[in-house]
Amino acid sequence: MKFGPVDVDAALGAVLAHSLKLDNGRLRKGVILTKDHLQHIRQAGIGQITVARLDPGDIHENDAAERLARALVPDPKAAGLRIAAPFTGRVNILADTAGVVVLDVAALERFNAIHPMITIATVPPFQQMAAGGMVATIKIIAYAVPGADVAQAADSARAALRLAGVVFGTVGLVVSNIVGGPPNDKGIRAITSRVQALGMTLAETREVAHDEGELGEAIQQIKGEMVLILTGSATSDPNDMAPSALRRAGGKVERFGMPVDPGNLLFLGQLAARPVIGLPGCARSPALNGADWVLARVACGIDVTSADIAGMGVGGLLKEIPTRPQPRNTPS
Known about the structure:
- It is built from 10 helices and 20 strands.
- The protein has helices at residues 35-43, 61-72, 76-79, 105-113, 147-156, 185-197, 212-221, 241-248, 290-299, 306-310, and strands at residues 2-7, 15-16, 20-22, 25-27, 48-53, 58-60, 81-83, 90-95, 99-103, 118-122, 128-129, 134-140, 144-146, 161-165, 170-177, 201-209, 226-230, 252-256, 267-271, 274-278.
- A hairpin with a 2-residue loop joins strand 3 (20-22) and strand 4.
- It is elongated.
- The chain starts with a strand and ends in a 22-residue tail after the last helix.
């Protein structure tokens, strides 16, 4: 592509690089100049303009962005995504439903290394999305790019992003009460909102005493394809009340603790075919915490291992919550 100033008489078919204010209105940058455009430019007394002229084999920014989007998401419906119409060299890729973003990070890094003018920006891996949320944007920075580079970028990252939709429809919530403890209404509302944001339904909420036997019975009997546990007193050990109650109910604890703050005191387990998440106390607040990351992945059928949770520490220092009784930045 050639870029620079030219006489108006030599600009037919070129791409206008900078917007112009004319007597009959504004001529926006990016337009492909026609005879009528050039006539209005001359009438405004302008003799020279800056343009981009495509070389043989170049692809216009909109066409390039759309081709790349179709390569990255060859089957939008199957990928749970929607491809928007191109504009100014940009194509946005949107979530078609609630879910979690799954990225081939290495492929996307290769994509961005092909040509500086060919770019994709995405949300972080495993980002929870609502329907209509922007998952990625492809932007061709220049007015055109070489077709060979477009083809190479497309080949480097085919089907590199998708949305994992929610696979569980219902959730059961078990809440324990301690004598003299605060009411659970706020926490139940916050967890209900999380469940609903993923398109799931809270099938049942059971409030029981903070007792291993009562907790175990409630965990075993609660309705729902997933089970969430919120205890009135913080779970601070793998053998504390809630993990022990899960084992008592016939389940197992696969991971206790996570390197995400707030959210350290989460535990993840299984009861027959039902995943079980022991929520940290910070889940009583609607603010983002480590439990949100685990809940979203599990709800979308993404396997979450102990190693996966261990790997969440980089980037896991989340925003401080004002209700924390001992803030991290307490002065010495």
